[in-house]
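User: Hi! I'm working on a homework problem where we have to compare a predicted structure to a textbook description. Could you give me the structure for the chain below?
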Amino acid sequence: MAVVNGVELAPEDLRGFRAVFDLVDDDKSGAIDAREVAVLMDLLGMPSNDREQVDVSVKQMDVDGSGVVDFDAFLRVVAGGVRRLPFTRRELLAAFAEVPTPSATPRGRVHVSSLARFLARHCEGLSSERARRLASFAAPDENGFADVADVVERVETLTDA
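Assistant: Happy to help. Predicted structure tokens:
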């Protein structure tokens, strides 16, 4: 059994979803674009002649903001919906770039105390204690540093829970 968005999928269901995805992925790119999503919508009996509706459908499935839908994103939608974060991965990485860090901070890392101070200062209504708890979610190493890419990955997994 595969579990997607808390829904158990039997292997045959997973194969069926893959077959549908592969059917509409006519360029075999591993992702479906707006034109291919329109084909999918036609297959499902949904109106696809409205370009705006197709674009909305792509945006609903396109969790990484790439403009196309990969199989994992497709599967999250067809297996029970998708919870989107209110920001993209790129925006989250850019936000980390705004966190002031001492010059000795290793590249790609953030000290959780810097992150906590930044959150408390810039997030309206967030207490210092809550900011510290949120920053500790970053899973710091023994020196108090967390890998920014790991933190972003952890945040993204919240959408799959």
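For your comparison, note the following. The mean pLDDT is 76. The CA atoms of residues 29 and 70 lie 9 Å apart. Good luck with the assignment!
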